[in-house]
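Q: Here's a chain of 111 amino acids. Please give me its 3D structure as tokens.
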Amino acid sequence: ARERDPLPLVVFPSEGLYRRQMTEALDGLGRRWRIAYVSASLASLQGAVSAGIGVSLLPKRLMPADQLALIQWPRVAPVELALHAGGRGSEPLTRLSSALIALCDEVMGPQ
């Protein structure tokens, strides 16, 4: 899929994770692209890439063994995750917030 013109992209829905970073990086290169597949499911995106439908921008740690990392491509802006909990939270909300932060730290790994 990486050799096709325009480049077929496998993406999350509009304004979804990584989509804008990918298209802006390709636009910066002057590389033509088209949306070939859209899904809100990470597993569906991985399956579409494995099937050769297109390329996607996902963290390398989420890449299945049957996929190739395109290392000679433009760098993209990092993604920032934020948790907003207004005011003073209850004890269950504080525990949930802590658990979500710990999960994100585990999934995202060291920066």
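Q: Can you summarize the key feature?
A: Helices lie at 19-29, 42-50, 91-108.
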